[in-house]
Design brief:
The protein is α/β, with parallel strands linked by helices and 420 residues long. It contains 15 helices and 19 strands. Strand 18 (375-378), helix 14 and strand 19 (402-404) form a beta-alpha-beta unit. The chain starts with 5 loop residues before the first strand and ends with a helix. This is RNI-like protein.
Length: 420
Amino acid sequence: MAHFPRLIELTTEQDRRSIRYRKLSPLNWFLKQNLPPFIVEHRATLKILVLNVSQSQALTDATMACSQLESLTTRHPCMGNNQDLEDWMNWYESLAVRLKSLSFIDMSMVSNNIDSIMDDAMDGLLSKTRESTLQRLQLQSEGISLTSLRVLMLLIMKSPELRHLSLAILHDKGAITRLAEAVEKTQRGLFCQKLESLSIQHGHFNLTEFKRVMDSLPALKNLSLFGCGASSSPIAPFLTTLNLRRLRVEGCPWASPTTIQDLLCSMPSLEVLAVNCVSDLAIQKDPRPWVCTELKELSTAIEISLGLDGITLILDRLATLRRLETLNVQRAYSFTTVDEINEYQDNDVNTRVHELPLMLEWGLDRLETLTQLRVLGVDNGLTKWGKDEAHWALENWTHLISLNVAADDEARSLLLHRIP
């Protein structure tokens, strides 16, 4: 019996409304073409479908009924034997020429005959598998099997139109390493000459593997590496050779403040940057100017070790980002609170400031050059605005539409009146 436990969301071309169904009983909807009534009603126009299914036959029946389907997200797809795997590959090929977006959440494949998709069989599978029209592919899984990984590599290499690839997997080898292995095995690259955005979560890699993958992606503009470890070889010098517009390296242990300073001084093409931390010490050691003058979004913690001099160093660098529209200042690892600051005298400033206090008494007015700022978020213990900061921000940052900063009641009232 094929079950269809829950349809999470479907969207039709006619009205673009999301229709949600929850806690549906597992009925034998798919026998004798007895499809759920909502699929029957919309199958001629249905373009976006999000499913919770574990059986391959249910997945096949639901998607084959929708002739105009372009985007599919499926949660918990599970293939438990060789026949399931063969059926799954047949299902995929039937959709390959019309799907533009495919997402697998907690994908599970276990084959009793793993040799069928081992390395020595990849070339044969590559030659037999149909090229897809996929432009977006996502896989998210906490416990992915080797079978799933090999099938995934196959899908990537047979998707020449792919623009966006997102891989969040936990495995003994990370996604970068697996992609590098696929490139090396085929000797023909990843076949993703149009890939513009690559997002990888978790795993480790070395510089050789990283370069091998990046060299296969000539159109890459957006790179996100979240929680990815690297070998002792420095990654930053190679990153600076890439013509990236968006770079996110949050949670990466190798992305130290010194590394981030090197990126800020070497990548003029950057428009979005999300990193662990920027520090005044790194700027002092490497006093080169920041060259990313096109930067529109910056998300980072900011650590201060040099007191007032360090605050000035940071603010002066931020002031050069005249096109900045979004600034998110996150909590640093070491911090003190506003109340603790008030307990010290001015001559103790070098020991009591560990984060950037964005307030007028600490030089907030140095950022008057950020006239394009639209979004500001400050999450640290040293920033609390009063009415003076509120007035100043509203006068100098006239494009502000979103503000998340600790403030007293008077400042909050003033800001809420001007910024909904």
